[in-house]
Amino acid sequence: MKTDRILKHLREIRKAKGIRQEFIAGELGIDRTSYSKKELGRVPLTLDELVTIVRLLDVRWEDIFSGDNPKIPAIRQRLETIKTFPRSAQIDFTDYEELLKGAARDIDYLLSLVDLLSSRGAVRPDGSGN
Length: 130
What we know:
Layout (H helix, E strand, L loop, with lengths): L2 H14 L4 H8 L3 H8 L7 H11 L3 H6 L4 H13 L13 H23 L11
């Protein structure tokens, strides 16, 4: 999902919940105009800001990133299945081979989302990134 779609989705969620830009801006420690520029994609959001906005909107990450992308719910389902693996050291993983291959693809996909955000100027909470 492209960054502009994510921002549009966040804006739609904010409006649907009746949350004003001033409120989110205040929580981020910036003015409404600065927040508006971030929400419109004119100024990049940091990952810290994105985390705060997701918390303020009270939504799940997969709700933000899924949009028209069916991969996120499939990833969640696969992870839930993996959590049910037996806790024995004598597991025959051949039964789970396809599931594990799918999980590896999921990780690659999620890493590509992080790379996309970084390429668009997002800054990780640890300060690294562009």
